Amino acid sequence: MADCEKLLAILEEKFGAKRDLADKWGFTVLVERENLHALMLFLRDDQSAKFDVLLDIVGVDYLGFKDYEGPRFAVEYVLKTMKAPVRRMRVKVLVSETDCKVPSIADLYAIANWQEREVFDQYGVVFEGHPDLRRLLNHAEFEGHPLRKDYPAHKRQWLSTNDYLLPELEARLESKGYKIVARSKEVMPNDDEYLEGSRKV
Which residues fall within 8 angstroms of residue 90, CB to CB, at 6 or more apart? Predict the structure, then answer.
């Protein structure tokens, strides 16, 4: 606990971070989004912290939370350090519904690339500076964000084409020295492949 208090004092002085009093059991700090990237860089590299593993990035929708007052969404970063594997912390950024953006940290932790895409897909949080921010779990034509509390749970959506991933795969193979001898062509769905009874548009 003494280590946490020492680290909190540094984070408060350098980045204006505050302890999240809502976290009764763990160690969570709140930071403004403009200081997020610098704080995460510090936590990863500074010897007093050395949180070199990003376990997860999660979205939170506070819509309907009892007695909650504040921005509707939060993005939380779960970190641990390999020098003391049981030592963990969370960093939380609050974001409003009307300006739902935070800076990307994909340049600091490679896994953040996929984790940020998942939060973008499910909650609609835009990660500014992300190298390839597109849906990860839902199809390319999906409208809305299914983990928002006001998303209609029984809503069905039409899928007419798949997200075409072969060019990305081919580029990655080429970057590793492989030669592509024949380029793939996108296969568009055909009417005979639609499920029986599906609505054709």
Answer: 20, 23, 26, 27, 28, 29, 76, 77, 78, 79
Distance (Å, whole) CA 90 – CA 27: 6
CA distance 49 to 39: 11
pLDDT tens for 8-34 read: 999 999 999 999 998 988 999 999 999
72 vs 147: CA distance, rounded Å? 13
The residue extents of the domains of the chain are 2-143
74 beta partners: 60, 94
Q: Please give the model's pTM, rounded to 2 decimal places.
A: 0.82
CATH class of 2-143: alpha beta
pLDDT digits (tens, 9 = 90+) for 119-139: 999 999 999 999 999 898 888
Q: What is the CB-side half-sphere exposure of residue 138 using CA atoms within 13 A?
A: 20
Give me the count of residues in the chain: 201
The encoded tokens of residue 158 equal 């039409």
